[in-house]
Amino acid sequence: MDIAVLIKQVPVSNNVSVDPETHALIRASAEGMINPADLNAIEEAMVLKEQTGGKVVVFTMGPPDAEKALREAMAHGCDESCLITDRVVAGGDTIATARVLAEAIKKYGHFDLILGGALSADGATGQVGAMVAECLGIPHICEIQSIQYDEAAPDKIEAVKKVYGERFRVRVSLPAVISVNFGCNVPRLATLRSTRAAKSKPLTTYTNADLELPEDQVGIKGSPTTVIDSFEPTGGRIAEMIEGTPEELAAKLKDLIEEEKGNL
Predict the structure, then answer these.
(1) Cβ(55)–Cβ(3) under 8 Å?
(2) What residue spans of 53-149 are helical by DSSP H?
(3) Which residue ranges form the domains of the chain, and what is each CATH number?
(4) Fewer CB atoms inside 10 Å of the end CB: C or N, the chain?
């Protein structure tokens, strides 16, 4: 089974610059790491590779510095990687990003399964996986806990989801896109040997000239949504201790809630 894994390089800390005009994060100015949920997706891919053979190719879109995240992913076991980097595609919303990732996947080759983290640590929209599936015209399962492969049905994959405390088994025909929940497994650690080996593993770079997408379909120009403002929230709430009998506490809480409602 050939598997593609979509990863995102996210800022290590909240100390990130914001473009004053586009209100987008200036990722090139911040130290990055692999989005935590994407590490869980890589682990699911590695387990499936051990069961089925094939290869795992990791994709990301970002500045040239995102190569570090790809090398790290290959140190975790991925076989190859692909970086999509171009100022034309920068600053795009989830729809524009999904278009670029889908086109890069199609250009790179055929994949039986595409995995990615369900949510990113910076945006947390949970939209890109489903949008990539839509662009490719294939099914999608979101926010799964585990994946199971049955040799008796090699053209299908089964995933376990949790919805309001209930567990559901969902079977889907391949190819498909599946987004993986953070913390659903324990990602394997990179070793010194695997880190050294990752330096010589194949890394392909695409620009928009390679993908041949219209410039009004990618980046800021191709984004139907726009961030009109960004700000850092300020704290101002003060804890207030109240005492009394249960009846007195209930009355005081009611008064405080009514007072807070009046301030909204």
Answers:
(1) yes
(2) 67-75, 94-108, 128-136
(3) 3-217 (3.40.50.620)
(4) C
Query: Is the confidence at residue 151, as pLDDT, over 80?
Result: yes
Instruction: Please state whether beta strands 3-6 and 113-117 pair in parallel, antiparallel, or not at all (unpaired).
Output: parallel
Biggest CA pair distance of the chain: 72
- Determine how many CB atoms are found less than 10 A away from the CB of residue 56: 25
Residue 28: pLDDT over 60: no
pTM for the model? 0.82
59 DSSP β-pair partners = 6, 82
Q: Averaged over 18-47, what is the pLDDT? A: 79
pLDDT value at position 228? 78
Residue 227 makes CB contacts below 8 A (sequence gap 6+) with 22, 23, 24
Dihedral sign for Cα atoms in the order 188, 65, 55, 180: positive
